[in-house]
Design a protein that fits this description.
Helix content is 34%, strand content 14%. It is α+β, with helices and mostly antiparallel strands. Strands 1, 2, 3, 4, 5 and 6 form a six-stranded mixed beta sheet that branches.
Length: 223
Amino acid sequence: MTTIIDFVDAHRNRWTKAVPSAKQPEVATFLSGVLDMVDGLVLPRPSSGIWRYASIPHFIFSEGKAFSSEPFTDDEMRILRSLQGLDPRGLVPAMGFRNSHLISRNVPELRYAEGLISYHDCLALHGWLELNGKAVDVSFSPEFDEEPCRTFAQMRHRIIRNQQAFRYYGVVFTGAEVARHLLGRKGDGSVIDCGACNHSILRRGLSTMAVGDHSAQVRPCTR
């Protein structure tokens, strides 16, 4: 009899072996402890045609990276204070794609990222923001029952808690690539799992202009 643990182990091993050998330890570490996952992550792509990536995690682990859990520096906290100009009541709890799209358009220092979040013993597709290789996540609630942030202080608390408590593995996208996938979609939804564009990323991969530079260090604006 196949158990859920057997099921997850099979996919964990398949995903780990699918990436270059240099990245396999990083992927294995990220997937350690995962006992459950969103159904859509393990569904194979249709057999018709040639797909570059067999599934969403194959793409993420091949093209993405693990995000740092190092605490935010003073300079980075000054950048996060730019979120004070946004009305937190416009951010909807648990809607990571939507919220992160919105912020990345208004705060250029924070770039849109999408990938997998490992929380407790679960794995899910999620959207967040990137700052110097660290996840800035205003949306995720492990119990999916948190109230919306009403002040910047509440938003800052959630960002710091999520960055320290959960693990993130994903791809940073340029604004142009995000806009291309969201055209006509009311500014929300996944870029990677994009049915509206016939899953073009999984079918054909990314152009060099689609991925943000992970190594670029962002510093506070002096204006």
